[in-house]
Design goal:
By secondary structure, the protein is α/β, with parallel strands linked by helices. It has helices at about 5-10, 25-35, 50-60, 75-85, 105-110, 120-130, 150-160, 175-185, 195, 205-215, 235-245, 250-260; strands at about 15, 40, 65-70, 90-95, 110-115, 135, 145, 165-170, 190, 220-225, 230-235. α2 runs parallel beside α3 (about 50-60) and α3 (about 50-60) runs parallel beside α4.
């Protein structure tokens, strides 16, 4: 298939694997890239030395293009970016922060930059910052999410009217028919998370993979909007969060409940 996303990343299929913390190590990224999509190493759950190890292993496991997802809300981002430059990674997806912070620097190094957005305002800001494409992440997405709760199939045509750069649709996409729907609405590619998170190559724990597979209608909910919106599977931790929010917990109390370093390996 030939379209702007395939040409931008030099891949066979316009399918991007989400750069998910805990799930997106070198094994998953290289497997997706070897299959013709674009694999992403999820740097958000990795300390710099661990991240560098994954980059080196991924380079050995595939001769196809792969990239890195860099959530900008985590500390040590500067170190992650320098490792990306050091090892000649050519594709970077940024998320959860201001795209202007690193885009110019990365593009000056010959790196293709994509930013994840959930609304028109940040899509326009990302385009103004000079990114090469955006990921339009709708309400259905797992993990961190937009506070507006705009669904994927509403978001794609909305952003198509606002920006000129290619759109990669994300959120609730896990089948050929949903890929076709996204492309029909104006996306040039899709990013898939949960389906890849439950794959054999995913570095997630087997119990987590099984939870994804067994999850059904109403098994998840968007929570923690006052801290950082995130979709949680309904479990004991979700119940703690829901109880705290129902009692009017402050932002500081919710941060304390989350704890420090929860995302790091």
């Amino acid at each position: 298939m030939k379209n702007s996303i395939c040409e931008l990343f030099q891949i066979k299929y316009p399918i991007v694997q989400g750069g998910m913390i805990w799930c997106s190590g070198w094994e998953l990224a290289s497997a997706v890239s070897n299959a013709g999509g674009l694999g992403l190493i999820g740097s958000g759950s990795m300390y710099p030395e661990i991240f560098e190890e994954h980059v080196l292993k991924c380079k050995k496991a595939t001769d196809k293009p792969f990239g890195v997802n860099v959530p900008l809300l985590y500390p040590q981002t500067d170190e992650i970016v320098e490792i990306i430059v050091k090892h000649g990674i050519k594709i970077v997806f940024t998320s959860a922060g201001n795209p202007a912070k690193y885009t110019s620097y990365l593009k000056d190094k010959g790196i293709t930059v994509v930013h994840v957005v959930a609304n028109k305002k940040f899509a326009s800001k990302a385009q103004a910052a000079g990114v090469d494409a955006i990921v339009a992440e709708g309400f259905e997405a797992g993990g961190h999410n937009g506070i507006e709760e705009t669904t994927t199939m509403v978001l794609i045509p909305m952003l198509k009217q606002e920006i000129d750069i290619p759109i990669i649709a994300a959120g609730g996409i896990a089948s050929g028919s949903s890929i076709f729907a996204a492309l029909a609405l104006g996306a040039e590619g899709v990013q898939i998370g949960s389906l890849f998170a439950s794959s054999v190559e995913s570095s997630a724990h087997e119990n987590f993979k099984n939870k994804i597979i067994s999850a059904g209608d109403g098994s998840t909910k968007l929570t923690l909007k006052s801290v950082v919106p995130v979709r949680l599977i309904k479990n004991d931790f979700f119940n703690e969060v829901a109880q705290a929010e129902s009692k009017g917990a402050s932002r500081e109390e919710l941060i304390s409940l989350l704890g420090k370093g929860r995302s790091k390996l």
